[in-house]
Design goal:
Blueprint (H helix, E strand, L loop, with lengths): L1 E4 L6 E6 L6 E6 L5 E5 L6 E5 L4 E4 L2
């Protein structure tokens, strides 16, 4: 697991870079203090974003 810091999001949408291929993704933020899982549309990599902590978690 690897962690990268990124600016926190409020609600609505925010942009996150895929930790695998670097593609910039627009993701929906339902809970600005919660966590959400996403899948990259380019490389199909799975990762989690913890909006409260401002980190991205993914398998190396």
């Amino acid at each position: 697991m690897y962690e990268l810091c990124f600016p926190g999001a409020i609600t609505g949408e925010t942009e996150v870079d895929c930790p695998y291929c670097g593609t910039q993704l627009t993701v929906t933020v339902e809970d600005p203090m919660g966590e959400a899982s996403f899948q990259c549309c380019e490389c199909a990599g799975l990762f989690e974003v913890d909006f409260g902590e401002g980190i991205v978690r993914y398998e190396v």
